[in-house]
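[Automated response] Your request has been received and processed.

Submitted sequence:
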Amino acid sequence: MAKEIAKGNLRPEPPPPTGDELGILSGAFQAMLADLTVLIGKEKESLEKDRLLKELELQALQSQINPHFLFNTLNVLSKLALLEGAERTSDLIVSMSNLLRYNLGRLDRPVTLRDELQHLQEYVTIQQARFRDRVRFELQTEEEALQAGVPSLTLQPLVENAFLHGIADLEQGAVIRVAIARTPSDAVSVTVADNGAGMSEEVRQSLLRLEDVPEPKQSTGLGTRNVFKRLALYFGRDDLVTIDSAPGQGTRITLHIPAGKEENKHEHV
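Generated structure:
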């Protein structure tokens, strides 16, 4: 066993059990090996969390042009639009400013679903100005479910995926629905559904296996795979996502948020 471990094999064939001193030594050796395997797994998970966080930070850095200058400019544009009587334009600029501020400021901390929902509504305001009557956005929430903690930037990328992959080619009748509710087990269910293009079984399975799949070129860069991966790392589980979809039949993504994980300002994801 020691020779196998020295070669890098952490799952060597154990010797047959005996009741003498060598049996006791062998049992202790196997227990130590099991502990070592667990520690290595935790270290890999920690390294993966750090990698994902740095990836998010890099994406944010690549997309920002001196945030203070950007926000000040947007503020001036908003006030100018108000002075000129363009209230809708002013509101749209404010939504864009809030969207950027959230994206740049909360990458390393868990947030509540309430925070995510407010951020999502800013994004939807901007998209509805673009799509106008072509798309209808429906929201259904339960107040007691909104305190559940999740990684930052969980909801908006899923809805963006619905806009870009799902309903972008529909000339009329497009619908995107978001529902957040408590389940009988006191967990939280988050559903993002659209009636758009859907996806193939191959793409659906790839997403569930957290494999790399092509993201739309016009995406902000934070795709569904990243969301699913960070959820798995945050909760320590890989069974939190359900995807129902087929070509031409829309897509329904459901996140199953476990109970008892409320927002913790001092915990990093």
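Summary generated for your ticket: Residues 57 and 173 are 37 Å apart (CA to CA). The first strand starts at residue 110 and ends at 112.
If you did not submit this request, please reply to this message.
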